Amino acid sequence: MFWASYLLAALAIILAWPAPIALSRAGWPARAPFTAMVLWQSIALAGGLSMIGAMLVWGLEPLGDNLVTASAAFLDILLADGSAESLGVIHVFAISAAILLFGHLVFTLALTFVRIHRQRRRHRDMLTLLSSPAAGQPATLVIKHPAPVAYCLPGGARSVTVMSDGLMDLLSQAELDAVLTHENAHLHQRHHLLLWAFAAWRAALPWLPTSRLAQQAVSELIEMLADDEALRHVDEPTLVRAIAIVGAGAAPSTPDALDDALADESGIPLTTARAVSGGTSDVTSTVPRLRRLLSPLPPLSLIQQGLALSSAGLLLVIPPLLLVAPELLG
Amino acid sequence: MATLGDLERTVMDLLWTTPEAMTANELRDAIAEAPSGEVGRELAVTTVLTVLSRLEKKGLVKRERDSRPHRYMSVTSREDHTAELMHEVLVTAPDREAVLARFIGSVSEAEAQTLRKLLGGS
């Protein structure tokens, strides 16, 4: 059974380090955000599975030739108070670590869920007092504040999109529609579930730099997905203008200047795109988002997308296969 | 049928717009006279008191303890609460990203300059 645990450990290391780094540096996710999103999810899930699996299989090795008999022997030790002499300290340590890690991941997921929901409920309570429904727009609230702000607050049937009147003053009706369709796409595509899972992963494994990379990539990808959805309803210049105006936090001094600047691609320097914002190490993504809309690259070919999706599928199949492989092979 | 949220909103609107503190009785009368019609039915004073204690627990309302009956007032203005809520939305915190999805995330100063240039502004 040792070889299976070594393979699982190798997979865990690849998925914890080189794979996420390579994916976070790749250029193609902007051309196929949905596929990239699926790949991130399978990397995270398979990474966790193989980490836990490697320790479990290695730890149980002295107790049997396969996972089933070894687990049964282990339960026998625990419940029937059998002798643990056959195990040895190191193997007991590995089994405990696997169980602890599993518990830690599940617990953090639950804790993050509770924390997020509590904050959302409190926020919704305050919104009930401070905002008023937008005219003719169901589930849209307007709050009196000068800063141009738009966001959505997920919550099942009580999901709302919030806009400040500062935003409504700055944007034309078409640009507001672009903002609203973008935010509604977040709600319809259940992006908050992805954000929850990856926020939990980051909270559970903060020492793993790739958990931060994954969370960043996922929050960038959902913006791309929502932009793509908005583009089905509004034209590209309208969406670009809305993003630029809200991002700059100021109205364009001359409406025509925007069109000129947009025509001139060099107006967006590549270097500033990776500028680090105040205090945190989180990279902001507004300029890359705009660049993607302004000079769209062709979407990834179906073959390439198929390749990426099948590797995502493989990643999910391999760890369970490795877990049962010793049994299958005798 | 007005929900508790609607009632809380009506009470807060009254407290925010009335300069002096109000008793539960005064609040009930003001709600009954309110032109909005949303909650414009006759309310029991106990209902108003329930709403007030909920708002007090949320830190939105305080009362003058030395007067009988108690007089209630808002803790801070509507504008202050809005500013606080918007600060919560705008502040950059990775752990908060999952709570709500903003149209534009945090924008660095360099990015904002780029965008302003894009928009042809100053």
* Low-pLDDT segments, ≥5 res of chain B: none
**Content of β-strand of chain B:** 5-15%
Count, helices of chain B: 5
Poorly predicted segments of chain A: 250-283
CATH homolog superfamily of the largest domain in chain B: Winged helix-like DNA-binding domain superfamily/Winged helix DNA-binding domain
Which outline of chain A best applies?
A: elongated
Find the CATH topology of the largest domain in chain B: Arc Repressor Mutant, subunit A
Sheet with most strands of chain A: 4 strands, mixed
Q: How is the largest sheet of chain A built, in terms of strand order?
A: 1-2-4-3
Residues in helices of chain B, as a percent range: 40-55%
What kind of sheet is the major sheet of chain B?
3 strands, antiparallel
Figure out the total of helices of chain A: 13
The count of DSSP E runs of length 2 or more, i.e. the number of strands of chain A, is 4
Return the domain count of chain A.
Answer: 2
Please write the string of helix (H) and strand (E) elements of chain B: HEHHEEHEH
What assembly state would you assign to the polypeptide chains in this entry? heterodimer
Order of helices and strands of chain A: HHHHHEEEEHHHHHHHH
For this entry, give a set of tags.
heterodimer, A: 330 residues, mainly alpha, 2 domains, four-stranded mixed sheet, 13 helices, 4 strands, 68% helix, elongated, B: 122 residues, Arc Repressor Mutant, subunit A, three-stranded antiparallel sheet, 10% strand
In short:
Chain A is mainly alpha-helical. Helix content of chain A is 68%, strand content 5%. In chain B, α1 (4-17) packs across α3.
